[in-house]
Amino acid sequence: MLEALDTGGHLLNIHHSEIALKKGNRSFFESRLKLNIQNSLSDIPGVSLKGDFGRFFVKLAPGVAVDRVVQRLQKVIGIANIRIAYPGATDPQLLKVQIFEQIQSLTFNTFSIDTRRADKSFPFTSVQMNQIIGAFIHQEMHKAVDLENADLVVKIEIFNQRVYYSVFSFAGERGLPLGSTGKVVSMISSGIDSPVASFMMMKRGCHVTFVHFHSFPFTEKSSTYNAMDLVKKLTIYQNYSRLYLVPLAELQKAIILAAPAKLRVVMYRRMMFRLAEKIARLEHCRGLVTGESLGQVASQTLDNIAAISETVSMPVLRPLIGMEKDEIVKMARRIDTFSLSTEPYDDCCSYLAPPKPETNAKLHEIYDVEGKMGDWPTLLDTALAASEVVRFKFPETNSEDG
Ligand code: ATP
Ligand code: MG
Description:
It is a single chain. The chain is of the alpha/beta class. The protein has two domains: 2-171, VC0802-like (2-Layer Sandwich), CATH 3.30.2130.30; 182-401, HUPs (Rossmann fold, 3-Layer(aba) Sandwich), CATH 3.40.50. The protein has 13 helices and 14 strands. The strands form two sheets. Strands 2-3-1-4-8-7-5-6 form an eight-stranded mixed sheet. A six-stranded mixed sheet has the order 13-12-9-10-11-14, with helices on both faces. Helix 3 (92-103) crosses helix 4 and helix 8 crosses helix 13. The protein is elongated and about 85 Å long. The structure holds adenosine-5'-triphosphate and magnesium ion. Magnesium ion (MG) is lined by residues 189, 191, 347.
């Protein structure tokens, strides 16, 4: 559909999603969204962003590829939809012909005209505009009007003495503008779940810093490469990311020596949570994110979740806790992380993991093991000091802003 359009200096009309609900803070959310839109388009010449009456317009210079800009905007969280808007005549008798010419080759059965008049000094009301243009289209094309559920909706927007009309609409990602609700640290494995969990928190407006634990040199580095590829994918939604690659090997060694095999995974997780919380404090983040889903695997029983969570005081956000695997997989495919997550990798938790892990970890057993582990707080600090930080940007020329 897009190829059929000329690239003659039109506008993209951006509607945001939930911002309208946030009465008192609306301008805060809007300016965040504006910044994010600007960042996402920063490497495309010939586009300029304008805000007007609570909506945004991206102005395209002649020759700018509309599809490229639309695709970028579809990844900006907080946008509900994007419409390609053409400047129209202020005289409805001329406007109706322009609209007719635009839609005459399109296939549809029912249509509606939806006029919004921000400019009350305009000589025609919204209802009059709808009637004049609707009657003409009906007469010329013999199509029926359907105000509820039309195949084709023509929107007309009037503001600042100007008229724009739009026919083509593209769904946005919705959600709250990224960065508008705070910063979190997400524990990202190379599996299917944690990239989806990270994405869901992004959609609630959180900027995400990523932490991945690996067992190098006990295992290969493949999980870290997977984690890097996943973070690169997710950075498309948030402009810049930091990924901490944290070596867990020495802590795992100490756990293996002190813990019965069935407790290992819970013990690894407790150390992971403590490290993630330390990173969150360094990064001024206010919460931790995991991809846990209740009952999905042995470590995700209520008892084990309790035994793992008690190591940290920050809130642990688990956006997938009530989701089924099918739903998670569907979302992973949509955000294009699924194929990366199903590549083979050496996971630090499967490293020396027992065939029958504990499902009801008892705290007294856990404390007993940690008592026998020697100076693990120092091992935590050593692991943190040995972490590597990898930075990602999108678009790649974009500057990091946090
Ligand atoms: P995923 O698909 O995200 O790997 P999972 O279903 O395999 O999740 P677990 O292996 O029990 O579940 O992991 C639960 C959560 O713990 C993960 O979603 C992730 O948030 C965190 N986690 C597990 N392994 C790692 C790791 N190596 N590095 C960072 N976080 C991890
Ligand atoms: Mg996993």
